[in-house]
Amino acid sequence: MTRPFLPEAPADAACTGTTILVIDDSATIRSAAAKILGEAGYRVVVAENGFEALAKIADCQPALIVCDIVMPRLDGYRTCALIKASAAYHATPVLMLSSKEGLFDRARGAMAGASACLAKPLAREALLEAVRLHLAGHFE
């Protein structure tokens, strides 16, 4: 059985700062996350859905991904699983966003390869703390 794959990361990609990819079908959440992360000094790339994110990932080279769970066509669990199945991005931390703070969402996210699950609406400090924690672990 063949596994879906993502494009390989370009070997000569110039790093222009720590990039975070935010995937959410809600323009409000994308905007809020971009504002919070941008003000904290991160470079933010946004995607409206999982397919758009998979198309952008090789170009933006994210150090971390924030991904909504409930999205049309390709949900966050499947998006995360596809990212984690890629040799180039399997180590990239993925923070899942859930409108419900339930054990089921956290467990299913972990099964897909997510590093953590954050509750919506986004709390500025919770998002920044999770990003700092998972970036620190990623770059050790």
UniProtKB/TrEMBL annotation:
4-aspartylphosphate modification, residue list: D68
Record-linked InterPro entries: Bact_response_regulator, CheY-like_superfamily, Sig_transdc_resp-reg_receiver
Source organism, top-level taxon: Bacteria
Tagged with keyword Phosphoprotein: yes
PROSITE patterns xref list: RESPONSE_REGULATORY
PANTHER family hit by this protein: PROTEIN PILG, STRESS RESPONSE REGULATOR PROTEIN 1
Keywords associated with the record: Phosphoprotein, Two-component regulatory system
Protein name: Response regulator
Residue span(s) of domain Response regulatory: 19-135
Signal peptide residue numbers: none
